Amino acid sequence: MITGVALKCGGAAEHWEESMKLLTSAAVGAVSAVALLGAATLANAAELNAQEKALIAAAKAEGAVIIINPLFSDRTSQRMSAAFKKRYSLGDGFKFNNLRKGTGATVAQVRQEIQAGKLTVDVILVSAPGFFAAANDRGAFLELDSGYWKDSEGFVKSAGQYSAYPYVVTPLAYTFQPVWNASCPGMENFNVTSYDDAIQASLKGKTISSDITKSFTYTNTVIALSEAGAVDFKKFWPALKTTDPIVEFRTEPKMQMLISCQRPFDMWNLSGRVYQNVLKSPDLADKLKIGYFKEGQVLLGNQAAVLKGAKHPNAGKLLIEFLLSEEGSDIFVEGEAIYSLREGYTPPAATAPYLLDLSKHKLIGLKDWVGAQKQFKEVRELWQENFR
Q1: What is the overall mean pLDDT for the chain?
Q2: DSSP code of residue 200
Q3: I want to staple 207 with a disulfide (CB 3.0 to 4.6 A). Which of 245, 283, 290, 340 is the partner?
Q4: What is the pLDDT of residue 159?
């Protein structure tokens, strides 16, 4: 169990209602803030380290980079592409390709490509310690020489997250939180600070059960909560079943169910999905609410590595450096409202109301991130007994 971990991120959960009052104006200003951030990022790239300088020419000659991940939205991908090419003077002809799938599908594709010896991607970014450990054991990743890993390594270790430098780094993390639409019928006075709140009788016909069979992160969340004694899922799943939930996997369609009031409550979504929808529709700022679980928040670090035999190895290594840099962190934190694992990092102001102050929450990790994968079958079968 992890306690007392500090990230310098604003918007503590206990001040959530106060923060939400600011969201409408924040959303209106966010477009301007994003534009200013983008302009500053492109015009004032930080001084490059020696490792970055050594990779630029080869990366430019390769002409492209392909990253597979479950997280980066199209908007984030577009901004990252522009900033990446500008920072390293790669030219407009350089191709930045963001392939997004679910966590399970991301791992399955790359595992199959490694086994077949036919790679279509260069970089994998996903929360799947068991996969990274197994692939690293068989020599599937290129060795990195990072100038920025030192800025994250200490926090990654203190937060109990998996990494295996010089082959596997962990640049970012997220945590699943309860999200609901207070404007939907019967949700006006609803609030969540505990897992008991997620199975209230009043929620019948209003809930979503996340399909853990398709997700490493959902499954690891269940295992971590069980290990910590925070939730007894032998009792919780049957209780959730009494609310007659819809089964859904990806966070985006679940968020649309909330917005439409088809299913106004999801116990496991991402605060960043709220942020992204408020940017598109500022009126949602007063409707979409985000809670937390006093039993603990499971911090899910996302690992990254460059595949040995990739078509664009130098561009892949350069992308890893970018993700570990402050500039790269600003891009994905602003885009997804997730957590950079750089020590002492301060996120862009536009995302602050959507980020927990993790130093004020009970953080739960896994005793053995790699060994946890051995529990996947049993944990998923228990869920399936109730929802399949």
Answers
A1: 89
A2: -
A3: 245
A4: 85
